[in-house]
Design a protein that fits this description.
With about 325 residues, the protein is mainly alpha-helical. About 70% of the residues lie in helices and about 0% in strands.
Length: about 325
């Protein structure tokens, strides 16, 4: 019932918008209210109902209401006037199946083939095909399909993301970086863009630039995982004190973060700040008496020449390990 009301409300809203009286082929244009890469195409008068279904399907599927999208599209795609985009959206709904059921996934290719048979210039269908290729590990095929998505008469710019994924999985990080930069020129910068740039720059051993991109991502959304990426880059470059400054921000925000305390303890030990390292490991153990943390503190005690304390921690580690089974 909730789905029916949702669909009825959206169809009513869509019906209130008049469609342009254009019979010539649709031209691609950006739509600010759509997810990146989506396009709106001009529609001729007299066939509003099928395109209302198409637009509602786009709303549901591209905003991750895939089960609702499937319920709408499965019967609609059996109609003789079902559009190429409807079949492409149904394929996407199958591809994003939350259970990743192999029986559902097996329907993806058929729907995409139908979409392309109805409209060989449907760049979105090619992009979805490239996405499916990447999910299947067929990265070279993904490159071909993504390029088609970008060069047909109705291009789909978000195919650049699939191109970047394929290049990255094939080890061509420079090409993936270029794809990611090109996508940002179309869609604008985002947290996901800066994180992708950082990841690729790390793989290219361009860590200072990776850190810059992670910092830009942090400006958009401050999350611990991004701070940890910055810490990892600084540590890899031997900038332990800078890494300590960054990890200390997490501890200040959440003083009971045992992982952050342990990481700072590890970094302090690399700088031979043994007392500070022991203090951090001790605070972490107070929150999480794990074998891993006792063992790590024992290593610092050994560096300090405190064999008895190291042996005590090794014994505590064995006890903690036995207790976990």
């Amino acid at each position: 019932m909730r789905l029916l009301l949702h669909i009825c409300c959206l169809v009513a809203a869509l019906g209130a918008v008049s469609t342009p009286a254009v019979a010539s082929p649709a031209k691609f244009r950006a739509e600010p209210n759509n997810p990146p890469g989506l396009a709106v195409h001009a529609r001729p008068r007299g066939i509003n109902s099928i395109y209302q279904i198409e637009n509602l399907a786009e709303h549901l599927v591209m905003r991750h209401h895939v089960l609702d999208g499937r319920r709408l599209l499965e019967p609609a795609c059996k109609r003789p006037n079902a559009t190429s985009r409807m079949h492409a959206f149904l394929a996407k709904a199958y591809m994003d199946d939350p259970e990743q059921d192999s029986r559902i996934l097996s329907r993806v290719d058929g729907e995409l083939q139908t979409a392309l048979r109805l409209d060989p210039e449907n760049g979105m269908a090619y992009s979805f095909m490239a996405e499916f290729d990447n999910l299947q590990g067929e990265y070279k095929k993904a490159l071909v399909d993504a390029q088609k998505a970008l060069h047909v008469k109705k291009p789909f710019p978000d195919a650049l993301r699939q191109l970047a994924i394929a290049h990255s999985n094939l080890g061509d990080y420079k090409a993936a970086l270029a794809d990611t930069e090109a996508r940002a020129k179309v869609n604008g910068p985002s947290e996901a863009h800066f994180l992708s740039m950082g990841d690729l720059l790390e793989k290219l051993n361009r860590r200072p630039e990776a850190v810059q991109n992670y910092r830009e991502a942090l400006k958009m959304r401050n999350v611990d995982t991004t701070v940890n990426k910055i810490v990892a880059c600084l540590e890899s470059d031997g900038k332990y004190q800078d890494a300590i400054v960054e990890i200390s921000k997490l501890i200040q925000k959440n003083p009971i973060d045992s992982e952050a305390l342990a990481k700072r303890g590890e970094l302090q030990a690399k700088l031979k700040h043994y007392k500070e390292s022991i203090a951090d490991y001790t605070a972490a153990i107070g929150l999480d008496e794990s074998a891993r943390l006792f063992t790590a503190r024992a290593q610092v005690y050994k560096m300090m020449g405190l064999k008895q304390k190291a042996d005590e921690d090794i014994a505590s580690a064995r006890k903690a390990s036995a207790a976990s089974f």
